[in-house]
Amino acid sequence: LISIDGDNKSIIQGFTLTGVVTASWESTVLSLKNSANVTFRDVIISGNTVSSDQRVMGMYIVSASPEFDNVKILGHGTSSSTARGVVMITGSSSNVKFNDVVWKDNYAWDYSVLMLNGNNTAVLTNNVFIDNYSRNAGMIILGNSANKLALINSTVVNNIAPNSPIIEMEGSTNTTILI
């Protein structure tokens, strides 16, 4: 739906992205690539679904460092959804900030609700994860190596997938800070 590729430092504020049906491997609601260092404020991303197997339905962030302030990521997929993940941070050297974000009623089957995939950083401050589901991975996954995750004053409530950890780390030299 929204794709920003290249150097961009815009502030996007006060809107809702809802009802999108993503339909191909690279289809996603919000794609940020290659220094798309945008700030999203007071935004709701909700109720998006998939019609075929794909990478992530909510956000795909590649080599970018966006900031999300007072954002709600709600109701992506269902327990029978074919989406592998909700938000993926990949590429190299992304540094993403999630401040005052609510993650609620999101479903993933492979890449989790939030995935960092090799040499990326995510700082989550005052976040709430509630009633999310990740069938084959943790709620947050650090894939490959050299990822850094900080959960600061954040809460995880009612992870509804059986035998699914809150944080899953794969590879080596991943760092998690819980404050």
Rounded Rg: 14 Å
What structural category do the secondary elements indicate? mainly beta
Number of strands: 22
Strand content: over 45%
Figure out the total of helices: 0
Helix content: under 10%
Largest sheet: 11 strands, parallel
Tag the structure with descriptive keywords.
single chain; about 180 residues; mainly beta; eleven-stranded parallel sheet; seven-stranded parallel sheet; 22 strands
How would you describe this structure to a colleague?
The protein is mostly beta strands and 179 residues long. The protein has strands spanning 2-5, 11-13, 16-18, 21-22, 30-33, 39-46, 49-50, 54-62, 67-74, 83-90, 95-99, 102-104, 107-108, 112-117, 121-125, 128-130, 133-134, 140-143, 148-152, 155-157, 167-169, 175-178. Strands 2, 3, 6, 9, 11, 12, 15, 16, 19, 20 and 22 form an eleven-stranded parallel beta sheet that branches. A seven-stranded parallel beta sheet has the order 1-5-8-10-14-18-21, with no helix packed on it. The protein is globular, with a radius of gyration of 14 Å. The model has no long low-confidence stretch (mean pLDDT 91).
In short:
By secondary structure, this protein is an all-beta fold. The protein has strands at residues 2-5, 11-13, 16-18, 21-22, 30-33, 39-46, 49-50, 54-62, 67-74, 83-90, 95-99, 102-104, 107-108, 112-117, 121-125, 128-130, 133-134, 140-143, 148-152, 155-157, 167-169, 175-178. Strands 2, 3, 6, 9, 11, 12, 15, 16, 19, 20 and 22 form an 11-stranded parallel beta sheet that branches.
